[in-house]
Amino acid sequence: MALEITDGNITEILESNKITLVDFWAPWCGPCRMLGPIIDDLAKDNTDMVIGKINVDDNSQTAVKYGVRGIPTMIFFKDGEVVDKIVGVKSKAELQAKIDSLKS
Question: In terms of pTM, does the model score above 0.85?
Answer without folding.
Answer: yes
